[in-house]
Design a protein that fits this description.
The structure is a single chain. The protein is built from 4 helices and 12 strands. By secondary structure, it is of the alpha+beta class. It has a 4-stranded mixed sheet with strand order 10-9-7-11, covered by helices on one side. Strands 1-2-8 form a 3-stranded mixed sheet, with helices on one face. The chain has a 3-stranded antiparallel sheet with strand order 3-12-6. Strand 4 and strand 5 form a beta hairpin. The protein starts with a strand and ends in an 18-residue tail after the last strand. The C terminus is likely disordered.
Length: 260
């Protein structure tokens, strides 16, 4: 349970960031780094990279739409030998939808918006996980002041207190659900499954800011949204998964492709 959103006094605050209490009623895991160019090419060898993502293989992969990120998550579940019934997306050609109770399944998926903010904050209430000042930001995040309008190798700067790198700056992270208003009132709201169908006209959430953003947008509560088909040069992703109470039995003990 944590306080999500930003206070009225936070510099750069947007109207859709109203503070509220959110409960994540499960244990979840989140990749310590964004998916890199090298990792994504194992899935889609011929995927055309944007110029800012093609310089080195350890750069965060960019120009990724939400659909490709979701397909990669299902592929990663297969690579690790997880039971097919634990994958979080139903993929039929170009059509994708989320499985019922996907937050209870053990396959890879995209983080929910609440999971992403909780992991980014690492227990803090300040606008960034290291505090309020802009002076320290270049030590933790790639943004307009220090990026030279390019992405940089994942894990090059300091992590937050949960050991997560680049959760602010470098590359935006696609979230699982569509953008929606935060719940009103002081009651605690549960982080739960969103609509299962994926509406191509419903904008989905991105978190974290990127190498193209000013310091004003590199904040734990900052929300961006784009259509799921949008391939911004600054949009990437990092897999998440729900940690099951009972360990899953892999289909193959020799499966490869896991992430820390």
């Amino acid at each position: 349970e944590f306080v999500m959103g930003s206070p009225l006094t936070e510099m750069g605050r947007l109207e859709n960031e109203s503070q509220h209490k959110r409960r994540i009623g499960r244990t979840f895991a989140l990749a310590t780094k964004s998916v890199t160019v090298e990792e994504f090419r194992k899935y889609e060898k011929d995927y055309g990279q944007s110029a800012v993502s093609a310089r080195k293989t350890d750069l965060p992969v960019g120009g990724i739409d939400w659909y490709r990120a979701a397909k990669y998550c299902n592929w990663l579940s297969e690579q690790e030998g997880l039971p097919a019934g634990q994958s979080c997306f139903e993929i039929m050609g170009d059509e994708i939808k989320l499985k019922a109770n996907y937050l209870s399944l053990g396959g890879y998926r995209l983080p929910t918006e609440a999971e992403m903010e909780y992991a980014t904050r690492a227990g803090t209430l300040t606008k960034r996980y290291f505090g309020e000042t802009d002076d320290l930001l270049p030590k933790y995040a790639w943004f307009t002041k220090n990026s030279q309008e390019e992405t940089w190798p994942v894990g090059s700067l300091k992590p937050n207190d949960l050991g997560l790198f680049d959760v602010q700056g470098n590359m935006f992270t696609w979230c699982q659900e569509s953008l929606g208003p935060y719940p009103p009132g002081d009651a605690v709201s549960d982080d739960k499954e969103a609509q299962l169908g994926v509406d191509g006209n419903a904008r989905r959430v991105l978190r974290g800011g990127s190498f193209l953003n000013q310091a004003l947008h590199i904040r734990s509560a900052f929300r961006l949204d784009f259509l799921p088909s949008n391939r911004l040069s600054s949009s990437g992703f990092r897999p998440a998964r729900t940690v099951p109470l009972v360990p899953l039995t892999p289909l193959s003990p020799t499966a490869e492709g896991g992430r820390n």
